[in-house]
């Protein structure tokens, strides 16, 4: 191996393979002669590789084995080199494997089987697609939109394979709307998540008892017995499904504060709408655009907005009282013990019992129906932040994807985003390792 070839081999960095040839090609794929001059930046680099060590079976990893068939040269897109597009060229063989008796294509340290990009390139694409719309990533690398998606899928799949599978002890059940543009039979999906890590672990179409039962059927008895608490929104079928299971019939079931507050917020919104529907000009003038304001906790309302809210509340006592109830509910759900939650909830129920106020009375009935599951918050407090994060990530994804058609992909991406692989040291290591070549021991 000449010096030039040795340096190039070291930079390209795939153990067991050496660089045979490097050529510059222009946009039309024609070879550009160098003759000591620097080729224009639009020229791409093509690196031809050759194997130095014995081949490995891609199926079982066995070293050696005779050549079964020589295949035509294949091309893989690699990371750009000093801004130049790089393509790897290699002609693999089919190995006649003595161990598994297969004839699979030899194992390549830079790419997974059937992929047209190298692992390290896919890893970069995935990392970009993690925070950028697919179209932007496609433009950045000059790729097709579907190629980006496939590369991203391959990287996430590889990442999923390296992850530890912790035992599920705290379960969150949540329903998600698939968006206005979704035309399928089901308008909702049910997502089961691990509340310890916040990661979604299972998804299914629909939001009925059957959907949750399908998930339960996929669990082993030991897995069910490991579950300590189930947290869900106030959707009754979820409760029924869990109670209907013979192992989980007695497991503590709570409504997480996030969803209880959301339900109360809906009641206040409805009340606000009904008030403004018949409002006079004064109230309309100050109350315009307070839709989101009335849902915000007082401590997070800015000074100017506080003034506006106070004005609205002075004009309409009904709305003021509803806002107070919402504030009170936030405090009650944070109360430290069963006695104070019970007392607080009783007080709220008394304040919302008037039948004339329809939205608040509906909230009253709903809180009454879910009494036990809310009180249980005293003993079992699910991490609300996790549920909120999952919710926010979902909304970001659905909005950015403008209605995903491939829901398996959407779910994978959600898991990837929630898990945030770069949050812990170990996660960073595993994530960076995705792009590395497969460890190859020298064949003897
Ligand atoms: Zn084999």
Helicity, in percent? 40-55%
Q: Which structural class matches the secondary elements?
A: alpha/beta
The overall pLDDT, averaged over residues, is 85
Strand order of the largest sheet: 2-1-3-6-5
| Sheet having the most strands | 5 strands, mixed
* Rg over alpha carbons: 29 Å
Written as H for each helix and E for each strand, in order along the chain, the element string is HEEEEEEEHHHEEEHHEHEHHHHHHHHHH
Listed once per kind, the bound small molecules are: zinc ion
User: What's the count of strands?
Assistant: 12
Beta-strand portion reads 15-25%
- Terminal-residue CA separation: 20 Å
In one word, what is the shape?
A: elongated
- Poorly predicted regions: 439-444
Whole-number tally of structural domains: 4
Q: Please count the helical segments.
A: 17
Structure commentary:
By secondary structure, this protein is α/β, with parallel strands linked by helices. It folds into four domains: about 1-110, no CATH class; about 110-160; about 170-255 and about 400-420, Nucleotidyltransferase, domain 5; about 255-380. Helices cover about 45% and strands about 15% of the residues. It is built from 17 helices and twelve strands. It has helices spanning about 5-10, 120-130, 135-140, 145-160, 210-215, 220-225, 235-245, 255-275, 280-285, 305-315, 315-335, 340-350, 360-370, 370-375, 385-400, 405-420, 425-435, and strands at about 15-25, 30, 45-50, 65-70, 75-80, 85-90, 95, 170-175, 190-195, 200-205, 230, 255. A five-stranded mixed beta sheet has the order 2-1-3-6-5. Strands 10-9-8-11-12 form a five-stranded mixed beta sheet, with helices on both faces. Helix 5 runs parallel beside helix 7, helix 8 (about 255-275) runs antiparallel to helix 11 and helix 15 crosses helix 16 (about 405-420). The longest helix has 21 residues, at about 255-275. The radius of gyration is 29 Å and the shape is elongated. The relative contact order is 0.10. The structure holds zinc ion (ZN). Zinc ion binds near residues 97, 99 and 102.
